[in-house]
């Protein structure tokens, strides 16, 4: 395998950034490879961590690769140290100079939801560790979590100019490491789901974003969209307070602080919440860690943020994709799903395509990938358009897998047991078939 230095630097640098920023290196490597795929077509999927990535290189390339990791580790460590609580007094000094000492009126207390989330379970930003690129004590994130959340992070990141998808992703990594579903941990204070919503706040912001008939605080779509709306509301509120001279500071930092401690804490402090132990030991480090993680998540999300359906994609193809996107994050269940929706708690690959085609166009497909291959007409993969079906994992009886083509070499599919409905790269052996 030939090694392109720029591609290697992107992949390894992103992986080391993940170790520093509390993100599973497996996720970072997988997404970094997607970014560099056009440069290094023959690169294998680096899903076993940085150590496996380096070991897979030719002997003459391993030493330079280790040097890239070392240099990137040192650079990122130096950059992150300035954000640590012991070394960053800027927020405290700012509040001391600008705090107006005003209290919140009864009317403001109704308008300002506080606190939205439990500061008690916010992960603390510890002192910068001595980083080994081959080990990590960072909280693990399920493989593919960013891909599962990406479509909704993109949508929520478009609600207002101040809150972007990378900001939301970094916040979710800090809040609950993207853990969702029935087994997602509940904080001691009762905060729920990947967005760690307190019940009272969820009653206000929780809605059915994905059209599955319920507002699910433990899901993917509903919490992400709720977080986007809450953050944008706080952003607008803080911008107005700044214009009124009631608070000072960076609007994004104050908005993130409001997500953790409540907007009322920002207003009472005249800026970044300060003074109380919870503010000093949790809110400030919480904000710093999200801001530090934002660039890494911008890299990881870049393939998904750039994903747009081709302009020639017809409306029916868009609808097929839209129906499948409703269930991004739903577990893979062998034999799961039909034209009515998920069964047994999820979909398998052909169950997802059966549902999406029926929901979008009223088309009833045969149940398996092998039989679905015989519907419609085959088209060259390089001529596939959004909404076409793509088939792979060829066996004696036909294709063992099917997904829905998105364009740009990507598909939405239900991959395998233990995984979830997600966006992924088209397999090398795939062939396309036009149904709609």
From TrEMBL:
Biological process terms in GO annotation: proteolysis
Family designation: Belongs to the peptidase C40 family.
Domain of life: Bacteria
Pfam families: NLPC_P60, SLT_2
GO molecular function list: cysteine-type peptidase activity
Ranges where the NlpC/P60 domain occurs: 314-436
Keywords: Hydrolase, Protease, Thiol protease
Native source species: Rhodococcus pyridinivorans KG-16
Segments forming a coiled coil: none
Protein name: Lytic transglycosylase
């Amino acid at each position: 395998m030939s090694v392109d230095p720029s591609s290697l630097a992107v992949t390894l640098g992103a992986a080391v950034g993940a170790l520093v920023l509390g993100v599973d290196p497996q996720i970072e490597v997988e997404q970094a490879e997607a970014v560099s795929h056009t440069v290094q077509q023959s690169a294998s999927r680096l899903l076993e961590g940085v150590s496996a990535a380096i070991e897979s290189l030719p002997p003459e390339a391993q030493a330079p690769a280790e040097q890239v990791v070392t240099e990137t580790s040192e650079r990122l460590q130096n950059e992150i140290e300035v954000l640590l609580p012991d070394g960053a007094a800027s927020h405290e000094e700012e509040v001391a100079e600008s705090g107006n000492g005003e209290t919140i009126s009864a009317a403001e207390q109704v308008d300002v939801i506080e606190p939205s989330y439990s500061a008690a379970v916010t992960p603390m930003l510890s002192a910068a560790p001595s980083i080994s690129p081959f080990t990590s004590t960072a909280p693990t994130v399920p493989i593919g979590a960013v891909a599962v959340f990406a479509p909704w992070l993109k949508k929520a990141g478009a609600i207002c100019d101040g809150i972007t998808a990378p900001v939301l992703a970094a916040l979710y990594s800090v809040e609950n490491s993207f853990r969702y579903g029935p087994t997602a941990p509940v904080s001691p204070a009762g905060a729920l789901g990947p967005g760690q919503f307190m019940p009272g706040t969820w009653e206000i912001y929780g809605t059915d974003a994905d059209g599955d008939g319920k507002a699910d605080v433990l899901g993917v779509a509903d919490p992400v969209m709720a977080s986007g709306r809450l953050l944008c509301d706080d952003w607008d509120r803080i911008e107005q307070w700044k214009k009124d001279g009631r608070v000072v500071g960076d609007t994004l930092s104050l908005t993130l602080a409001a997500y953790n401690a409540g907007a009322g804490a920002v207003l009472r402090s005249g800026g970044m919440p300060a003074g109380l132990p919870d503010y000093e030991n949790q809110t400030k480090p919480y904000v710093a860690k999200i801001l530090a993680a934002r660039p890494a998540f911008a890299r990881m999300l870049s393939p998904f943020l750039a994903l747009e359906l081709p302009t020639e994609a017809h409306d029916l193809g868009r609808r097929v994709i839209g129906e499948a996107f409703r269930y991004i994050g739903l577990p893979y269940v062998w034999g799961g799903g039909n034209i009515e929706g998920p069964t047994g708690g999820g979909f398998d690959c052909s169950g997802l395509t059966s549902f999406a085609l029926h929901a979008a166009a009223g088309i009833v497909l045969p149940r398996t990938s092998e039989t679905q291959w015989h519907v419609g007409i085959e088209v060259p993969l390089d001529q596939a358009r959004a909404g076409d079906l793509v088939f792979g994992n060829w066996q004696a009886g036909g294709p063992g897998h099917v997904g829905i083509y998105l364009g740009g070499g990507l598909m939405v599919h239900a991959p395998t047991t233990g995984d979830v409905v997600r966006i992924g790269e088209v397999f090398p052996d795939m062939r396309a078939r036009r149904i709609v």
